[in-house]
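Notes from hallway chat w/ T.B., transcribed later so I don't forget. T.B. wanted the structure written out for a chain they're using in a teaching module, and asked if we could keep both sequence and structure tokens in one place. Agreed to drop them here.
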Amino acid sequence: MNTRCFQLAIIAAVAGCICIVTVAEETPVAPLLAGFGVTNIVPEQPEFHMSGYFRERVNTGVHDPLQAKAIVLEQGDTRIAVVVCDVIGVIREVTAAARARMADTLDIPVAHSAIAATHTHTGPLYYGVWQRYYEETHGREQNTDVEAYKTYLEDQIVAAAEEAVAALKPVEIQYGGAHEPTLAFNRRFYMRDGIVRFNPGRKNPNAVKPAGPIDPEAGLIAFYEPGADAPHGLFTAFSLHLDTVGGTEFSADYPYYLEQGLREAYGDDFQSVFGLGPCGDVNHIDTSQRLSQKGQEEAARIGSTLAATILEQLPALETQEAPRLAMKQAVLDAPLQHYSDDDLAWAEEQLQYMQDGDVPFLERVKARRIIDLSMRDGDTTPIEVQALKLCDDVAVVFLPGEVFVELGLSIKESSPFAYTSVVELTNDNPAYIPTAKGFAEGSYEVENSRIAPGVGEEMVEAARLLLYDLKFGEE
């Protein structure tokens, strides 16, 4: 493990009896229960600002629902919740409050809950530099709407978990991966002049080759009622940025169409919960073609293609024979990037030019990064890593931030479990988490990162330790 000054605190998050205890003979395995809950998270206030781009957008309608979707798992005395929200990111202010309430009212320990974002770029803006910018620019009560939405989002997250607890029932689980290599592309390219550039443009003759890989595997966990021929719910983790729609209508982007495709096969009551895999350097743009690849049609193409791939490969999933539910947590005290007083003065001056297309894009990104850092407390930030075990073959890792795909692949490759999925943007959003290699190469994702180089690799090591502890440690 890297010996830089990180404090790695491994916190046990296994509560009560896990299902298999070895005595003279095998003890019966406690049944695994699962429940789903869904709530609306569209802002109640009209004309709400939208997140996702370096230009102002005010919501004009709702194309498809923004939702908080919860899965609650229970076995014996162990209860675990995973909630995924159709927003650009979740912040610790909201998730910490929601997790504390779930611990108090639903008997779900804080270390046993994970709250993630899908990263839709057509959701509400409710935190960060842009929220401050619009408040200052327009001189209106924008902050009132934002604070009200934070409370509303927290309430709806808890309500989704409450609904899932009420729906708990025995389940059987099948698991595995669906291979879909046609949708995702690494957006960082080696250029002929020796630099690395993100999104170099379609048919750019100066783009040599991608600077990194993709992860074509969609991790799948399918939920069946005992003896049922078809699942009633599916958890999918796939590494592909949600930035296909654009416009000014709220939309969940391609996961909405994924759900619709699955419901065509399994009915309107089928529950699809989508977790975003590490894709900080991956998007849907095929630079070898001149297609626009934008709008609801593109989101529908991606979602329906992914649904078709999953439906085709779902029969090949393996059945979980002996569930062994457990979850553990680690926290890194990760250093943030440094800035000087002069840097901050420059950034504050640049704030007025945040939407000015004549100002170089990376300068605007840099200014936002410095202001964002100045809005944070202290020189470090907690990076929480979680690992969930469903059985001796299946695990899911939860990470904060927009994580480079290479880091997610490293976790999968080093995992002792036969199948490991990774979900990013969980519990907090410290922005981009590049690899050490990515930091050395630079470009947008590095300029838009808040953490210091090396944090990504420390995060991978923390995940690996948790997975090995869940696989081989004392329960």
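Follow-up for T.B.: Residues 1-25 have pLDDT under 50 and may be disordered. Might be a good example for the class.
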